[in-house]
Amino acid sequence: MAIQRGARPTSLKSPDGTLVPVVRLKHTDRWIIGTLALAVFAWLAWTLASNQNIRWNEVAAYLFFPKIISGIWITIMISVVATVLGLLLGVLLAVMRLAHNPVLNWLATLYIWFFRGTPVLVQLIFWYNLAFLFPLLIIKIPFTTIGYAWNTNDVMTGFTSALLGLGLNLAAYFAETVRAGIQAIDAGQSEAALALGMTPGKRMRKIVLPQALRIIIPPTGNEFISMLKTTSLVYVVAGNDLMTNASQIYKQNNLIMELLIVASIWYMVMTAIATFFQSKLEKRFGSEAVRLVRRPSMLQRIFLGSRQTRESATPGSLPHTIGDEVSATGKEMS
Prior knowledge:
The protein is 68% helix and 5% strand.
């Protein structure tokens, strides 16, 4: 009996050759729990939507307000640049952590400990007030007067303070992610590369890092999505991001809840778009390995179908269907 790809079998052949009907299990408890969960969710949504203290017409009016839109672009810019800065510095720190040089290893460990041990909010305020320690930022040739100086307050604006604070903090977390990805590669491959005469740098570029990317990319995407929301802390240094602009508006018109809802809607939209591109990156850099450790997103379940994504996300689901399994083992069901 041939089974089409994706079709549910109605019977299976037992070891003695007889066909045994396949009975679909009834999951009554799942239906009851799911119904209760939907009821609670619907009650919460209705309570919020019917609240007379929320002026939904104001939410709609400010959703595409120019100051809100400009804040969104600043939020995206801060997130992208801070993530790139964190990733580049994180790779360097990870290599230092794995180096045989004890000084480099100690310095990388100290950096990671310091930036993971202090809150992001404290780091943002520190960089914004750097002028208290260094009124001037000077670059010059040592032991000469040749150089240039900048007023620290002119350089450390809310935007640059946000980039430094978020990027340097993220580098500490990226360093540990990259280090774990590199150490996950089997040591035998590095030994084989050395046996072929590869230099340590070439071995890292050609052998280790391409494979480590499959492990590094999923948490990297999560860090970027988290960064989109962490930028709301830039509010304390007035970085003109989405949260800063929303707060400036509600301080003038007192529509606090309405503007917070507007900001939340845009944060959720940006998160959904970032999640979509994260899934694209995962497919590009080793979809099979990544797919086994990450469940499909809500957008994937909506657009690709719940059954297909569930099968593709279930560990050990390769091959996808009984038909694939038959072809993979060289057997044929009849």
